[in-house]
Amino acid sequence: MSSRALKEHTSVALLAEGVLNGNRLMLSRAISHVENQETDASALLTALYPHAGKAHIVGVTGAPGTGKSTLVTALALSCRGAGMTVGIVAIDPTSPFTGGALLGDRVRMRALAGDTGVFVRSMATRGSLGGLSKTTGDVVTVLDAAGFDCIIVETVGVGQAEVEIASTAHTTLVVEAPGLGDEVQAIKAGILEIADILVVNKADRPGMDRTLRALEMMLDIEGNGARYVRHHGQLLRVESPAESEDEETRWKVTVMKTVATDGTGVEDLRQRIDAHRHWLRESGEMAMREQLRIANTLENIIRAELNRRIAASIPAGGLEKMVEKIRRRESDPYAAAAVLLAGV
Question: Which strands, in side-by-side order, build the sheet including 118-124?
Fold first, then answer.
């Protein structure tokens, strides 16, 4: 083993040991290694993966301005009151112009500061779509291995396209708020269909009854809106066993009302999340959702490796020349892609 390989091996071993022993500094460094996709990130994840799989992952998504960060803070406090440790991954958008991100969720979550049972990590999307960063799943794995009972993933809040969280979380909360004028937008296919629990936050505001009626009406139209996990990738098809169950045993999506700023309804929401976790295990749906997470992880790894190999196979200036030929209509994107793939 070379000195460099030995150093990397030692670094991975120390980081993994620190994460498993609850060392917060090592945990932060491990997450940075994974998020920055360092050369030893894969080895680190390999070392930690056998120790993951125990946490319950809760996704929180919804339009901007619905109070997701405040709700996550209140939910984390409720979990702590129930004796659970909590890891929070808060995703912030990356500017397409400057490449920077505010990462301001930790400012909103000041109430959690100083609690050793809570760990908050802000992440930038770094250009990824769907409300998450491309390394979010890996960061969740690190937190899971670190022994947190509940991991809450708060997405960017980009709207209807923000459905990737459904393949990352065990329980997905879709948060709406009255007075935003987006009831019709919320009803459109996509964002409501991923909900295991619908939450109307800021329920003390005018317009709450109208928002509540709109959501409940949509649940009635869609047969209570129960979400079933599916994976539409080419590597693996996953279908839910719960889809074939009768109406009595299916999960019933309900609309919960909260006022996160004063904690109203938050304890009821936490208990509803616990009920969903119990249903997932009893129905067999938990195993299917884990298969979905694994299938998506595999595809993301393969996609990233293909991109890396393609980039490595292109000579300097080769891609620019190829793009220019396509622009002049001397070639086309499909033929060019075939040439690049053939090189791999």
Answer: 118-124, 86-92, 150-154, 56-62, 171-176, 197-200, 255-257
